[in-house]
Amino acid sequence: MKKILVIATGGTIACKRTEGGLTPLITSEDLLSYIPGTRELCKTDAVQLLNLDSTNIRPEHWLMMARCIRENYPRYDGFVLCHGTDTMAFTAAALSYLIQNSPKPIIITGAQRPIDMEDTDARMNLSDSIAYACSEQAHGVSIVFDGNVIAGTRARKMRTKSYNAFSSINYPYLAAIRDGQIVQYIREEITGCPAFYDTLDQSVFLLKLIPGISPKLLLAAGEEYDAIIIESFGVGGLPACDNEEESFLSAAKELVKKGKLIVMATQVIHEGSDLGVYAVGKDAEEMGLLETGDMTLEAAVTKIMWILGQTRDPDTIRSMFETTIRYDRMF
């Protein structure tokens, strides 16, 4: 019988109603008491790592999660991490970079309603996650939610209240779980030992463009951060300005000269960026700015944090960013 470690970090799944609103209060052991049927599948242990609303999750917490999994890795066949939904996609992406090439499954799940409510998705999500963690087909970091298995680098929270809160962006679901039965869509073979990392650089800023935004904001971001991801329009580009010397292009060139890293992304969720299509994008492309392509913003942000934690060499940064990790980019 397989051994699965359930790691609780808080979130809605572990919430109780208080005068101040829903607050994570249910312990890791209590979570398991709501799904007694999983005892027939595997032996489960539980640890209470954190007890936070996921709005309060920070990069140092991702490192704590990765360290907990690393310390327990030899003793368990799989891991299920219970997490709030609001930043779950960021956590899944971050762990995909902090723990690579894992033959053992690392499943992240949560719920839209607390597990102690009569009408809740929590019990199904947690049961499905444990079942999938026991599967021989499960490897690496994934999210299990509403019967779907999503690669950790491809998840995005798309709905704030509905049970089908998460979608897989620009990549198929890895598997589906229906009435305890697993249908595996994408099969992978992972052999050898996992690679664990213990460093992230938080000096990453995401700048969302709106019509008429001032390029001075890009320069201001460059004063505080070492990497700026520009969330542009459509397939991507830098907006022009009446005074070219004060344009986004000139601001980007100034920051690049100072050794800052600039990455071009798109606000459009599906199909990705392509700087080579329009004139407004070609200048950025010719500057050699990095481009996210079909990556999610969550993956782009956390991948840059991971890369800057390992190197500051421009050529190595580009090579690492453009290398596909855990399905994070197709182009």
From TrEMBL:
Origin: domain of life: Bacteria
Pfam family name, one: Asparaginase
Positions that bind substrate: S54, T85, D86
Keyword Iron applies: no
Principal EC category: hydrolase
Domain L-asparaginase N-terminal: 3-183
Molecular function via GO: asparaginase activity
Catalytic activity: L-asparagine + H2O = L-aspartate + NH4(+)
Signal peptide limits: none
One BP annotation, GO: amino acid metabolic process
UniProt cross-references to SUPFAM superfamilies, sorted A to Z: Glutaminase/Asparaginase (SSF53774)
Gene3D superfamilies the record matches: 3.40.50.40, L-asparaginase, N-terminal domain
CDD domains tied to this protein: L-asparaginase_I
Catalytic residue positions: T12, T12 (o-isoaspartyl threonine intermediate), T85
Family: Belongs to the asparaginase 1 family.
Protein name, as recorded: asparaginase
